[in-house]
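Amino acids appear as letters; backbone shape is given numerically. Here is one record.
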Amino acid sequence: RSREMAKLTQLIDNEVFRAYATYATIVLLKMMLMSLITAYFRMTRKAFANPEDTASFGKGESAKKYLRIDPDVERVRRGHLNDLENVVPFFGIGLLYALSGPDLYTALLHFRIFAGARITHTFAYLIPLPQPGRGLSWAVGYAVTISMAYKVLKTALYL
């Protein structure tokens, strides 16, 4: 059992794994921030999805007007959903990629481009920036994840 623990501690000494852990943490925190931004927009726009969320604004019919869809809240929610659709695959594929033994420079390039693309995508969604900014930032991040997946399959091909 102590041998297994030694292997795990050796993983922390791996520079590529540390780079992955750093950038995975950055994009996961950014994704979590989207929940807070959604809550902020719900509160400032007074647009709630659940009746119990309107309790502080009155009861009955007076509170029902706060059960509504707001375009700004929905825009943030769509950005958050897009994060879920892209950060979760990066998290899994990036881990496999980091464990497949890439050189540090190439791994850092993948991780940094992905994180930059996702951060840019968020700003493009929230500001909003004109297209094709948001679409390009999405495509760049997606292409990075596909590139890492290709390298994992190429390294450990058991098809």
In short: The radius of gyration is 20 Å. The chain has one domain: 1-43+70-157.
